[in-house]
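User: I'll paste a sequence; please echo it back and then give the predicted structure.

Assistant: Echoing your sequence first, then the prediction.
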Amino acid sequence: MRVLWLTAHPEPRSLNGSLHREGVRSLEEQGHQVRISDLYAMKFNPVVTADDFSHPGGERLIVGSAAQEAVRRDTLAPDITVEHEKLSWADTLIVQFPLWWYGMPAILKGWFDRVFVGGFAFGVHDAQGRQLRYGEGALAGKRAMVVVSAGARQASLGPRGVNGELDDLLFPLQHGTLWYAGIDVLPPLLVHGADRMDADAYAFHAKALRERLRDLPHTEPLPFRHQNGGDYDEDLVLRPELSPHITGLAAHYRTGR
């Protein structure tokens, strides 16, 4: 595999930093190639501006069209172009971060805002003019796995936990970003109890990470529905005969989980 490991934690001596190094070492020992985007170490700028697209000063900025034009003309900011090259090279993406306020750290959200632009990560059409997204599109054929740490107990991120089910919390990233761009998303790895981690707990989570990375090429992705697979009507609403008693996020899994 060719793996891009995307990580976002400000402290290299943290739990996330230790697991990041453990994971990269494990992949390399298996013979895989690894490239790294350590956003805090890179001092990555997470803020979208007109400079990203070499947009003329004084003109109204329409981000979507400006991004597509910059991709077409190869005038994107150099730091975005570098990340595009890494993504194009990789067949597998690991996204690692601590869960802060039910989401990604701002620097990681900004990476997706600046890097997953139209013309690169989406905006592809078929011969009939349909948008190729949610399982199809520019990044189809790649795989991704989220590695997320949380201070919460494991059960509290389960189906009846006070924090909400983990896959629901990750739905905007896993379904609305990665799957939207065509990337197959593998089940996430939760590192729970991060604020109370002792040596034994670390050994447990490091072993779990190594096992997930070993099985990565063969792991079945989450069963998200394809937009253009016939499950949705012309308004992109799930057809009434499919999972008729299920609403919300669960309806967008083929198993109706």
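The domain at 2-222 is CATH 3.40.50.360 (Rossmann fold). The chain has two domains: 2-222, 225-257.
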